[in-house]
Amino acid sequence: MATTAETFPRKVFRPSMLLYDKRYRSLTIQVVVLFLLMGFFAWLIDNTLTNLAALGRDFSFRFLGQTAGYDINQRLIDYNSQMTHGRAAVVGLLNTLLVAVLACVLATVVGVLAGVLRLSNNWLVAGLMTVYVEIFRNIPTLLWILIIFAIMTEAMPPPSAFRGEDATSSMLLWDTVAVTNRGVYIPEPLFSRSLGVIDMGSFLISIDLLAIVAVVGLSIWANKRLLAHATAVQNATGIRPKTWWKSILILVLPIVALLVVLGFHLGYPELRGFNFAGGTHLRNSLIALWFALGIYTGAFVAENVRSGILAVSKGQTEAAFALGLRPGLTMRLVILPQALRVIIPPLISQYLNITKNTSLALAVGYMDLRSTLGGITINQTGRELEGMLLMMLIYLVISLLISGAMNVYNARVKLKER
Amino acid sequence: MSDTHARTTAFVRDTMLPEAPAPIAQRGAVKWLRENLFSGWMNTALTLASLYVIWWLLAHITPWFGNAVWNANSLAECRAILDGRSGACLGVIRDRWHQLLFGFYPPQHYWRPVLALVLLFGALAPMLFSNLPRRLLWLSALYPFVAYHLLWGGSIWIPVVAAAGFGVGALAWRLITPYTALGAILAALVTPILWWVLAAGAVAGALTSVAPLGLEFVRSDRFGGFLISLVIGISGISLSLPLGVLLALGRKSDMLLLRSVCIIFIEFIRGVPLITLLFTASLLLNYFLPPGTSFDLILRVIIMVTIFAAAYIAEVVRGGLAALPRGQYEAADSLGLDYWRSMRLIILPQALKISIPGIVNTFIGLFKDTTLVVFIGLLDPIGLSNAIRADTSWNGIYWELFIFIGALFFVFCFGISRYSMYLERKLSRGHR
Amino acid sequence: NTLQEVIDRGEVRCGVSTGLAGFSAPDANGVWQGFDVAMCRAVAAAVLDDPMAVEFVPTTGQTRFTALASGEVDVLARNTTWTFTRDVDLNLRFVGINYYDGQGFMVRGDLGVGSATELDGATVCIQTGTTTELNLADYFRANGMEYEPVPIETNAEAQQQYLAGACDVYTTDVSGLAATRASFADPENHVILPEVISKEPLAITVRDGDDRWAGVVQWTFFALVAAEEMGITSANIAELAQGTDNPEINRLLGTEGELGSMLGLDPEWAIRAISAGGNYGEIFAANIGDGTPIGLARGLNAQWTQGGLLYAPPFR
Amino acid sequence: MTDTALPEVATDRRIDASRMKVTDEVAVQISRMNKWYGAFHVLRDIDMTVYRGERIVICGPSGSGKSTLIRCINALEEHQAGQIIVDGTELNEDLKNVDKVRSEVGMVFQHFNLFPHLTILENCTLAPIWVRRTPRREAEEIAMHFLEKVKIPEQANKYPGQLSGGQQQRVAIARSLCMRPRIMLFDEPTSALDPEMIKEVLDTMISLAEDGMTMLVVTHEMGFARQVANRVIFMDQGQIVEQNEPEEFFLHPRSDRTKLFLSQILGH
Amino acid sequence: MTDTALPEVATDRRIDASRMKVTDEVAVQISRMNKWYGAFHVLRDIDMTVYRGERIVICGPSGSGKSTLIRCINALEEHQAGQIIVDGTELNEDLKNVDKVRSEVGMVFQHFNLFPHLTILENCTLAPIWVRRTPRREAEEIAMHFLEKVKIPEQANKYPGQLSGGQQQRVAIARSLCMRPRIMLFDEPTSALDPEMIKEVLDTMISLAEDGMTMLVVTHEMGFARQVANRVIFMDQGQIVEQNEPEEFFLHPRSDRTKLFLSQILGH
Ligand SMILES: Nc1ncnc2c1ncn2[C@@H]1O[C@H](COP(=O)(O)OP(=O)(O)OP(=O)(O)O)[C@@H](O)[C@H]1O
Ligand SMILES: Nc1ncnc2c1ncn2[C@@H]1O[C@H](COP(=O)(O)OP(=O)(O)OP(=O)(O)O)[C@@H](O)[C@H]1O
Ligand SMILES: [Mg+2]
Ligand SMILES: [Mg+2]
């Protein structure tokens, strides 16, 4: 047993070791893969360059700086047809994000409601919710978008129906909301003592908005402090002080005060010329996309919620009851914290799906990223290669951000196991 | 009974009590109603609200279907018959159902896609039911070629020669494998490609001129409607399965480069909307291919859809692989099985079985997403509904078409998902 | 060499629009019909002696140029406006204007609008993927008016939006407006406003860099135009092909000179092209003229001798 | 069967019987209690009195209604007829009574049912803080006291998933004890455990019994029954078939059902 | 502790010691073998020679590296220093050697690791067919032979999920035997089994030993060790602490660690 590692004969290198030697094999394979991959990309790029050369084109993103020349009906930042394609793309991107966020909110609300109701012991309600989930899950999104769009354009009255003595339609909610086949007009928030805007060069920021965000943020922070204080009191004395009315005050008063200071009032839509004017115009395309994506995805969310709640076993509830916890507290302290861990990851991947599905805006002419950068811009400039690649890249970045958020969440709430 | 009260006295029951009927509140319709519908003011309110919703839906839908008009040849005619009442104009379905189902596929050949679909179920059976003879798997392997020939037609020698490519590969592998295993693998990969690229065309041409057998050729631009959804969906999912499995294995590999490539690929595909991939198929693919190559749009779409589905399948299969206990890998290793054999014989059969629900969900999602091809000019059911509406006689018809298309998709997707749940239960019982 | 490829393949691949009544649309049997379609059939007849040897590839506004550039189609006969950038920057080759058009507006009669200058604040449906958005933006901007654009992908959908009243105005090329209006149940209640806000020379297009093929397509088109000018119709062509006193007719129909072989075709190419669907005038009348539901007048598309712009260079 | 040697519970401790006194106070009084699941009659005319300090073991074949009986006492299940009075409070539709009973009766389940998202300490302090309104500091002290009693104070800041089954079950017992219940219910507390772990849990329960806790235990650990219980109740088909002191019960079972059951339980 | 009676393995069979001869041929030769998991040194300078026909039992506290050692012999784990020569083949980077060794060394795991999607027969024929390239018919005959040896030929067409744990472990042994290994490794083959089943598996292993199979067995079944092993190796902290013939090992353990370990193992 006196042999030492040094005396073991070292083998000389033989080519067959490339394949049958642990040390070299994975290297061999990876080098082969690398070469294949490089070859493949070289081939792709060579083809592309040849094709571009044959067409007498170059590969450049200069077109983003050129004048767009087309109008966009829904813009969250200032835009007109004399601005650049790049800016048009940004307007489109913001529209994409807007409808994505709206649809995510709707899907969450609908999904949570339907998921919880599906578990209700009311047979009728549970049955209705099952029907909702199955119908929406098994019919393509695109069809839902088209159906809701068709409902909006076909079944709603045109603005002209609101006009004249013998108007066949009238506005809802004390003449503040008009539902027409061109979209829904709702009151818009206006400030008579506006604080103005900050010019950031390429875009403007409303100081009013900043102020509101700041105040809401502060209120939420203050409320957090209040709750923390309540917990501290509870820890010290065992009795948790009532906080709900204080919470409401803290959350509501400051913002109301700010709105009063800013001279907040609503601008109501009214019929003027061809259309309603004033108010905020929610276009059909937005509504169709928003509702279709929201309700369609809501069906999936409902299933996630349901299985999340079911995953928290009956035993947990019973254990909590046996300890004397009331149903409300049981929900808050035992069921929800556990169910959320199960529900939130699939929920976030549904958000991802919604974001990707907003590209179906194409079906209803909603001016999102796809139809500005990936549509009219490509059309006008003929830069489909650059435009498409850029658009994919933007979607990819959004997706990675969302799934990154999901991973962070998962890592945070992972249950500790042995 | 009173004797049980005494603390230490023993108690024995001599006669067992019979089962007594439950009190009225605990059984029958009363209990059911009380428990399910009216067990509190909240529940009662929900019940009433649901009843209202159901009534409202029925009140709107029933007359619409009740007054349905079948025998009209245009919307105007239909409206005339309805005479102001609300009602469905199902005449459009009677007039155009064949288009919605088959597109412009020649009517005298409708039996071909139908037969292909029927055969599909036959081909699936050996894969799903392990108690059928293994030999039947050959039929499943042949199915793609049969289906291709049924759908597109043309010379029968084209699919035959294409299938022969695999035979050539297998032959090469057989012949070389006694000498060098690596050489055999390479040969098995290279010879079919050589066959397809160099020999296949000539051989097929020669055979065709000698024996011109085959069905009438149907061009892919005649494909449409539900048929195109099925063709894209089914070929997409079946082609993406092997690719997805490879990606999943790659993603689990301990070779850094291989793993990163797979991860990047999967995350890229999953991060962009399908629509952009379809646009790539229709707009950009020609840039990436050698000058002058151009092939069928449906084929390009199938390629893109395959790549798309493969990324999702890869994730599903990865879940299945992760769910297998480590012991299975070790047992396979300890028996001396090499990587590919242990994957093929031990790991994948189990991992794929675990993944069936996920695969089916991916398929249903993919199938619904085939409607997006309307954006690149293919006539899927939604595309056809636009085309039908462009016809002067059916200008302005919406709901009937949407409902018909929706019902088609619903029946198909719901059916599949239920069937897969049934299969799952069956399979999970099978081996216990 | 496209010509050789087409002959080898036995089929002309022709890019058309996905469906525009009168110009290109599949009928109930899936056979393509229309004005643009007829142009492709004439080319196929000239080159391959079979007007039906055409594979029609429906293209959208977005896909058409790539389809052409990549060789997916050999010729694009799809209401495509000839513009400077398309010609120079996108490297297309516009071989002949088969329809002189301009962008116009259509509104409901009961709106009481008589001129496009009264459209301030209107909601305008536009079919995207063409030059329409740009013209529209320029026009409203130049006149200091506001509008609400509603972009729609297909003509059918746009038409539906307009009919449902979701927009006040529908704008596209005047020919398209007429075609659309013709399909309405009540065409008389819709007016096409007098303003034409742009020049839209719709041209047949081929790839740049293949002059021989461009020549074949170009001169096939000119043959149709010249035939109308010379009075050659599908009815009398058989008779005229026997030889006439008019040397230009003889040269065109191949009884005299070698024009066909200069193109790389046989002498009877023009006879076949004209027999396929008739001369330009016949094609126009059969697909979009007064006698059809589309009901377009010849207008600018009349022969130069009739006060129009159609002008075929001499066959000599 | 009667001559089968009784299994000995695996403990080294000598039981201090003097502390395990049974008093005259009634802890639980059940009379003519009936329960149905739908049309199925699970519990039939149950009459039973538990005195304070008693340790009752309930056994019987699977499906005989043992769990259901014990869960009725904690109002986890409703009964449809008869009366259950726990610690002077009748269980009826009055939710306040239910709350009162639940906070005075501790329950330990077969599958522990610890809250996996809370640490051991948090598991133990949750109910005292939110139900008893004990200040946190104090609740934690109580919890540590009972964790020491079940011999795992050092695990206080781990999560349930990090403990072994036996440790988890002991935490579950400690968690119940933190509410300072007057009665403890156990539903097969050891049947999900490995043999080594069974011992540690039974030890904990024995020490609880020594402290004079009133206990109702559903279990098949006959060694435990013999050593600790002062009464064994045998149930079958939803009814109490036999009850007796453990020695008598095991050595001279009277009803045929009991004999059959014991032969099965002890036979293998 | 030394006076504790050794537990007797629960078997009725008398061992036929004459057949269990140890030869001079070296089956496994391990020298100065070291292994690390990351920075953790699991196996330290292991030196060990196994002669053909030997039956070695390896024991030691949990985490001492027993499984790791045995898995190194089968190349399921790589070692980082030193030498392992199995049946004349050195385990090194050469994958061909690894394949060779694996097909000559059988391994039985704690959790059986049968392939649940294959029948018992298919489990047994899989490796012979695919690794040894035995014709199916012949492979099936061999499989049935060994299934008879482990006494479950009648289960051949069932699936593993349909068998009890003991039966599954016997199938796992038969599966290994079908490859006609020259050495068998066992990693706690009985520790996942109920007591009744342990016996049937141990019986199988004993009959294997009688046939002269070279065996390395990680187990805590001391009765088995005493009856079958001709050498017992005690490991702790990744090193071989003591080895001896079984009688000597149990009756006169020399190192303190061994004594402590034996007192724990045999004590409860
Ligand atoms: N929620 C329920 N709904 C309907 N029947 C039930 C329900 N819970 C239990 N049962 C039935 O009531 C009977 C008694 O159940 P219980 O759980 O009390 O039995 P057990 O004596 O505890 O049996 P085990 O020893 O298996 O735990 C069983 O037949 C069971 O099937
Ligand atoms: N894959 C691994 N990565 C890191 N450490 C490991 C790994 N496998 C085992 N270990 C560690 O190596 C040590 C030895 O493990 P091994 O499984 O060989 O012990 P053992 O003696 O078989 O114990 P047991 O009796 O519990 O099976 C242990 O401390 C274990 O935690
Ligand atoms: Mg029970
Ligand atoms: Mg081990």
TrEMBL record, chain A:
Spans traversing the lipid bilayer: 27-45, 97-119, 131-152, 200-222, 243-266, 286-305, 389-409
A Gene Ontology biological process term: amino acid transport
Cited Pfam families: BPD_transp_1 (PF00528)
SUPFAM superfamilies, sorted: MetI-like (SSF161098)
GO function terms (MF aspect): transmembrane transporter activity
Gene3D superfamilies: MetI-like (1.10.3720.10)
Listed InterPro entries: AA_ABC_transptr_permease_3TM, ArtM/GltK/GlnP/TcyL/YhdX-like, MetI-like, MetI-like_sf
GO cellular component terms, A-Z: ATP-binding cassette (ABC) transporter complex
Topology term for the membrane: Multi-pass membrane protein
Chief localization: membrane
Keyword set includes Transmembrane helix: yes
Family per similarity comment: Belongs to the binding-protein-dependent transport system permease family. HisMQ subfamily.
Listed NCBIfam families: HEQRo_perm_3TM
Protein name: Amino acid ABC transporter permease
UniProtKB/TrEMBL annotation, chain B:
Transmembrane segments: 37-58, 110-129, 136-151, 183-206, 226-249, 261-285, 297-317, 351-377, 397-419
Pfam families for the chain: BPD_transp_1 (PF00528)
Keywords annotated in UniProt: Cell membrane, Membrane, Transmembrane, Transmembrane helix, Transport
SUPFAM superfamilies the UniProt entry points to: MetI-like
Membrane topology: Multi-pass membrane protein
Predominant subcellular localization, coarse grouping: membrane
Gene3D superfamilies tied to this protein: MetI-like (1.10.3720.10)
Domain ABC transmembrane type-1 positions: 226-420
PANTHER family from the UniProt entry: INNER MEMBRANE AMINO-ACID ABC TRANSPORTER PERMEASE PROTEIN YHDY (PTHR30614:SF41), MEMBRANE COMPONENT OF AMINO ACID ABC TRANSPORTER (PTHR30614)
NCBIfam families with a match to the protein in the record: HEQRo_perm_3TM
Name of the featured protein: Amino acid ABC transporter permease
Organism: Rhodobaculum claviforme
Phylogenetic placement of the source organism: Bacteria, Pseudomonadati, Pseudomonadota, Alphaproteobacteria, Rhodobacterales
From TrEMBL, chains D, E:
Highest rank taxon of the organism: Bacteria
Keyword Transport on entry: yes
Start and end residues of each ABC transporter domain: 28-262
Keyword Glycoprotein (UniProt): no
UniProt xrefs under SMART domains: AAA
A Pfam short name: ABC_tran
Molecular function GO terms recorded: ABC-type amino acid transporter activity; ATP binding; ATP hydrolysis activity
Keyword vocabulary terms for this entry: ATP-binding, Nucleotide-binding, Transport
Family: Belongs to the ABC transporter superfamily.
Full protein name: ABC transporter ATP-binding protein
Provenance organism: Rhodobaculum claviforme
